[in-house]
Amino acid sequence: MRSDAERNRAQILDAARALLVDGADLSLSQVARAAGVGQGTLYRHFADRDALIGAVYTAEIDDLALLARQEASGDDAVAGLRRWLARLADYAVVKRGVMTAVSASTWSDVSSTTHGRLGEAVTALLDAGRAAGEFREGIDARDVILMTWFLTQVTADEWDDRVPRLLDVLVDGLRRGS
User: Fold this and answer.
1) HTH tetR-type domain location, by residue (predicted)?
2) Cβ neighbours of residue 13 under 8 Å, at least 6 residues apart?
C-alpha cells in the first residue's frame, strides 16, 4: 500500500474508533468527514460500515497483542500486566461501541477471528509473571478474560473511579500468596 493510502486508512480507523468511543451513530459519511477524506477514499478501503467496524475491532486486538508481547518481555511482570489491563480497559470502551454498532452476525464473524489472539496475549503475560515467580499457578487466559468482563458493566460516570480499583483487585488476585 502506498504511504498516502496507509495514512488515509489509519486516519479513517482513528476517526471511526473515536466515534465509536463517543457512542455516536456511526455513518460512513460522518467517518469520512472526521478523517478528513472523501467518501471515495473511505470506500476504497472499506466496502461497507461493517467492514470498517470490523477493521477497527481487529486493529484494537492487534494493538493489545503487540503490547502483551512487549510487556511479557519486560523486566516487571506485574507492572506489565497492569499496563496491559489499562489498555484492555480502553479497548472495552471501543468494543462496547462496536457491539452496539453492528449486527449480531457481523459481531460473531469479527470476534471469532480475534478471540484466539487475545487469549494468546494474556497467556504470554501470565507465563512471564509465573516465570518471574509473581503469578500463581493454575490461572489461565480464559480465567483472566472472564474476570475482565466487569468492564462491560461499568458505566461512564463511574469509569474513572471504579475501573482502576477493580483492575488492582484483579492483578492482586493473580499474584502468588494472594
Assistant:
1) 6-64
2) 52, 55, 56, 59
Q: By C-alpha distance, which of 10, 107, 55 is closest to 2?
A: 10
What's 132's DSSP letter? T
Instruction: Give the residues across from 175 on adjacent strands.
Output: 135
* Interval 6-58: pLDDT, tens: 999 999 999 998 988 887 678 899 999 999 999 999 999 999 988 898 888 88
Q: How is residue 173 written as a grid cell? A: 488476585
Domains present along the chain, CATH in parentheses: 1-47 (1.10.10.60), 50-174 (1.10.357.10)
Does residue 175 sit in helix, strand or coil?
strand
pTM (2 d.p.): 0.80
Q: How far lies 129's CA from each of 77, 93, 124, 174, in Å?
A: 5, 26, 9, 9
- C-alpha angle 163/169/174, rounded to 5°? 125
